[in-house]
């Protein structure tokens, strides 16, 4: 098939798909032929012409929508985001990327979140994540991997420069999966954050493949109602099968294009201060007082030194310190509770979820279209993992839904630039 034919058949397929959606799924309002024609010409680039109908049907798990969505996704390449491949001036960055430029309510304006975002690739995904969680009263520390290409770093810097409350961490690590550098990256950001003039209440860490499934307001309400003044570090006393992580000494191997952590034959000493080591999530939500404590307390500092040659120390460091009785906001008796991250782990298939409809990477699901309903029904604040290059429609649907929810909850007048889509009868139905 020559490229022209491919484009043509893609286009015909798209038309077929649209007609199908239009006829079978929505059937709500009948548009006049004139309006319909206008829709067709303006939204030609979008998968399904009426993406919100397709998304709404996917969110309730309609089988027909899944079939259409999968066909659609194979040919669909969403339009590139503005200001990502080419650089823009700041007023264009705010407008074209639809950044929300004022607090959407008093409650949100008076409760600031700090975010630590560690990234190394996929600029578009980073921008999508950033504009979803961005509000002017929050503060954002971006840790860009030291080994990322120079043009990637420059592009991130270019966007970040437009915002007074977003900065790149002053110290950068060459991050190795499961290595100490992953923990150190967060700590670098924390040092910068506690010295910032901008005040904040809680800090949340994210990676480049996370995306929020709750709004800024929902996140604040959840923290205030369930965790007021306490830290969230889901985890338990280190189970037997995790002991190897802290019993022998590990090393980071970094070489051009390759890096990993490997065990040595050297046994490790007991943890400092006889600390009981816990095992938990690397994702946390911590108070500012607790962060200050971890940066200054002798036990915290010694535990950090001791953790340098352990396996995946970010999965024991925060939870171990948050189980100390005298740490600020500590939860010594907590377990796995805390709805921080929706993740489909492979070993929880059949219990927590009914399988991954995308594919697994390192036993974690990269979400496909069939996972959308599970994601939006999850009580968690964020979900992981997303790969818009493989499943563009998954990201599009979640983005549209998230922004509609934000604007729906707003208690201030909404500016036109904040909207992703035209307000019309085809807008997504929201279960808010
Ligand atoms: C920013 O760029 C846009 C489009 O290129 C242009 O219209 C606008 O005047 C520029 N604004 C400033 C403040 O330079
Ligand atoms: C937020 O702060 C403003 C100004 O200080 C105050 O008027 C308002 O009542 C506060 N709102 C809430 C929900 O605390
Ligand atoms: C550490 O804990 C063990 C058992 O819990 C105890 O026997 C030992 O004396 C403690 N060591 C120190 C230095 O506190």
UniProtKB/TrEMBL annotation:
It is a single-pass type II membrane protein. The chain crosses the membrane at residues 6-27. It comes from the Eukaryota. Pfam families: Branch. It is found in: Golgi apparatus membrane. GO terms for molecular function: acetylglucosaminyltransferase activity. This is Glucosaminyl (N-acetyl) transferase family member 7.
